[in-house]
Amino acid sequence: MFRPTSAYSGFSVDDVDAAVAFYAGVLGVDVRVLVPGRMMQLLLPGSDVPVLLYGKPDHAPATFTVLNFVVDDIDTALDDLAALGVRPIDGGQWADDRQVLRGRSRDMGPDIAWFTDPAGNVFSVQH
């Protein structure tokens, strides 16, 4: 029987140094550089399992949401991110003028907004 001892997730970026600057310097996420310029980990709040980010010369942004950051108040989080120069991407036809899909009021999941990191990977902020 398959019995892993642990598991983790990871995704590629085109520039590890830019990823460190964005995730640590802009978003304030704890990072650990494993191999300068080539590999790093995100140490996410509420989790003991880091997420691996690795440089890939032929990187193509993921076609799915790679990270979901849970917040207490999505509107405050959007204001905070906007002050840092981080703007949401188009949330689709059901999103409001702030590009938030308000799922909670429709019993359709969380309130959620999507963003991209410098490598074009999509992450979300949700409540």
What summary fits the major beta sheet? 4 strands, mixed
Order of helices and strands: EHEEEEHEEE
Q: How many domain units?
A: 1
Please mark out the parts with pLDDT under 50 across 5 or more consecutive residues, or reply none. Answer: none
CATH topology: 2,3-Dihydroxybiphenyl 1,2-Dioxygenase, domain 1
* Helicity, as a percent range: 10-25%
How many DSSP H or I helices?
Answer: 2
Distance between the termini: 38 Å
- Which CATH top level class fits? Alpha Beta
SS-derived structural category: alpha/beta
Characterize the structure shown.
- By secondary structure, this protein is of the alpha/beta class.
- The protein is built from two helices and eight strands; from the N terminus they run βαββββαβββ.
- The longest helix has 11 residues.
- The strands form two sheets. A four-stranded mixed sheet has the order 1-4-3-2, with helices on one face. A four-stranded mixed sheet has the order 5-8-7-6.
- The mean pLDDT is 96.
- The chain has a single domain, classed as 2,3-Dihydroxybiphenyl 1,2-Dioxygenase, domain 1 (Roll).
